[in-house]
Recover the amino acids of this structure.
């Protein structure tokens, strides 16, 4: 199991609101988790290439 660090909460999160956190592993993998679970819930894991593809798709509106 990869260890993810440097978790960041989305800048769109409102005080007390639910949102997502994104963390990185030393291998460059990226994980996303629900911020309301306080680090105890499941994570979605992406390779660096998958993460870049996802972000580009979101930004382009596809």
């Amino acid at each position: 199991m990869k260890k993810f660090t440097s978790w960041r909460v989305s800048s769109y999160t409102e005080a007390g609101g639910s949102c997502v956190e994104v963390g990185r592993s030393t291998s460059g993998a990226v994980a996303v988790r629900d911020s309301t679970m306080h680090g105890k819930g499941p994570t979605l894991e992406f390779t660096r290439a998958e993460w870049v593809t996802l972000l580009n798709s979101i930004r382009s509106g596809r």
Observations:
- The radius of gyration is 12 Å.
